[in-house]
Amino acid sequence: MTDKPPTLRDVAAASGVAISTASRALSRPGRINEETAVRVREAAAALGYTVGASGRALSSGKTGTVALVVPDVTNPFFFGIVRGTQAALRAAGYAHVLVDTEESVQAEERALRMLRTSADGAVLAAPRLGDEWLVAWSSALPLVTLNRPVNGAGVVIDTPGGAVQALEHLASLGHRRIAYAGGPRTSWSDSRRRTALRAAARRLRVEVVVLGHYAPQREAGAAAADAAWQSDATGVLAFNDLLAFGMLERFTARGVDVPGQMSVVGCDDVFGADLVRPALTTVAAPLERAGHRAADLLLATIDRRVPGPAGDYEELPTHLVVRDSTGPAAPR
Q1: Which candidate, 4, 7, 120, 192, has a CA 20 to 30 Å from the CA of 130?
Q2: Which residue stretches of the chain are H helix?
């Protein structure tokens, strides 16, 4: 069994000073005489004691920690965002904390309440809180939102534009009645896609049938697939790839041929989208780039290099990746 790590009490005893004096010597050395400060630092070095986040915060007002808050850590959509965010923070010397709110508005608010005193800032990926709460929190804690702007700032992935690309693709294949299996009711991105699809449908002279709100999970795919089939649509756009995976499974179980009887399009191009059968046509998003950019904006805000609580606004483009799950429309 290893020895316990040295504590501030150990440093104080070794240097012959009070604990409060040792704390000041390590966090605010200008407040005690230099001879005492040197003695404390030498004792700390000899014992292998390092100042923790709380000590750094006392001297600099910063903890050196930044949080990435996501609604579902098991969703592969967030894997690329995690990698991009972590790369930017590591390069800047910050520790990276991942917080999973499990699609809960209440859990998201609790996380922000805790992070207010334990982190220098946070990247909120696809936050579920209402706009007024996000605005309030952005004044209490440096925040950058990803896929939902606050006060006109944040990093946004153009999934509505990608959904329109998918609709145009299906229309070019002769589909005239197309379903959209939507995402969570609290999803800002889902609301934008519904608006974009309705406008594009009028232009393309096709009908879009909006279905659900569905959880962005594979398990919700069965209900979404049943609803799409019952709607008499010949093609369906899923809110994300996980939902599309579940739909493909359900169509296979029901004996519905994809794409012979029903075309399916996902969104995000997560790992596995090219491995399912049939390989999934989907909207590819620059996830690592989005995470990296969000972290850059947050660090700029923390360092006060830019004005405002949430940095700048940037929208990243998406593109359609055509695979085997889409084909010509079949009569229904």
Answers
A1: 120
A2: 8-15, 19-27, 34-47, 53-60, 77-91, 105-118, 131-140, 159-172, 188-204, 221-230, 241-254, 287-302
Is this prediction's pTM over 0.70?
yes
Tens of pLDDT, residues 170-210: 999 999 999 999 999 989 999 999 999 999 999 999 999 99
The pLDDT of residue 28: 61
125 and 243 co-located in one domain = no
| Domain housing 254 | 159-285
> Given this model, what pLDDT does residue 329 score?
97
Long-range contacts of 86-91 (CB under 8 A, 24+ apart): 86/291, 87/288, 87/291, 87/292, 88/291, 88/292, 88/295, 88/296, 88/299, 89/295, 89/299
Q: CA-to-CA distance for 175 and 163, rounded, in angstroms? A: 15
Q: Give the DSSP per-residue string, 163-174.
A: HHHHHHHHHHTT
For residue 187, being part of any structural domain is answered with yes
**CA-based nearest residue to 301, from 148, 157, 120, 146:** 120
- Quick one: which of 48, 22, 49, 47 has its CA closest to 36? 22
